[in-house]
Amino acid sequence: MPRRLRLTRRFPVAMSEDAYRRLRRFAREAGLDEGEALSFLFEHFDSVTDSEVLTHRLRLFNAELEERKR
Q: Where are the domains positioned within the chain?
C-alpha cells in the first residue's frame, strides 16, 4: 500500500520570480500543487539532478548571487 503524502512541514521560502514561474510550470505539467512539486523534487533530489551539472550551475549561481541581490 502506497504511503500517503502528508505535508507536515511549512516554511517561508524566498525565491526569484524566474524560479517561482518554473516551479509553477513544473507543478502544472506534473498535475501537482507547488508544495507537492517541491516535496517530489527534494525527496528524489539525487535522481533528478546530474551531480556534475549541479556543481557547475551552483558555482555560477554563487558567483552571480551578490549582483542579483541588488
A: 17-69
